[in-house]
Design brief:
Elements (H helix, E strand, L loop, with lengths): L9 E5 L5 H10 L3 E6 L9 H4 L6 E4 L5 H6 L4 E6 L5 H11 L3 E10 L8 H10 L3 E8 L5 E7 L3
Parallel strand pairs: 1-2, 1-4, 2-3, 4-5
Antiparallel strand pairs: 5-7, 6-7
């Protein structure tokens, strides 16, 4: 994202846990608007307020698949990160519900893509073969964690 030179002014993250990723995104990309969706069930949620201290965010507490949560999220966004439920169906539902809020030319990042037991691996494969998103790259570490980055090509 940094190499693209694209300004990221609005960021949506689904699945926040402690807020570490939002902290990093804020530090490096400086979006003026950060929207976070989380059900607050992760054990590390207790660290979120201290990690995000001083960072202005809009936090929506609930399941990203609930209609009231979907309706409460207003775009557009330059960057959307999916880091919630790693199942195939759940990830596809998040894409269906939030892709319309991502601008054409915006970035879609999907976390936990390297664990073959997670459905997000299949999602990455399917998105890579479609016409709506261009795979920029996938980065995988030594402990089966990964993140795929796409750029939205079409509305």
């Amino acid at each position: 994202i940094l190499d693209s030179g694209t300004e990221i002014s609005s960021y949506l993250e689904i699945g926040v846990a402690s807020g570490g990723t939002a902290f990093i995104i804020n530090h490096f990309l400086h979006p003026s608007r950060i929207v976070l969706i989380d059900d607050n069930q992760h054990p590390k949620v207790k660290y979120r307020s201290s990690i995000l201290q001083g960072i202005i965010t809009e936090q929506i507490i609930g399941n990203s698949h609930e209609q009231k949560v979907i309706d409460s999220v207003t775009g557009p966004f330059d960057l959307v990160l999916l880091d919630g439920d790693t199942g195939y169906d759940a990830t596809m539902v998040d894409i269906a519900n939030y892709a319309s809020k991502l601008i054409v030319g915006g970035f879609l990042a999907i976390h936990d893509t390297a664990n073959p037991g997670f459905g997000v691996c299949q999602v990455v494969k399917e998105l890579s073969q479609g016409k709506d998103y261009k795979l920029i790259g996938e980065w995988i570490d030594s402990v089966s964690c990964g993140i795929a980055l796409f750029r939205k090509e079409t509305e």
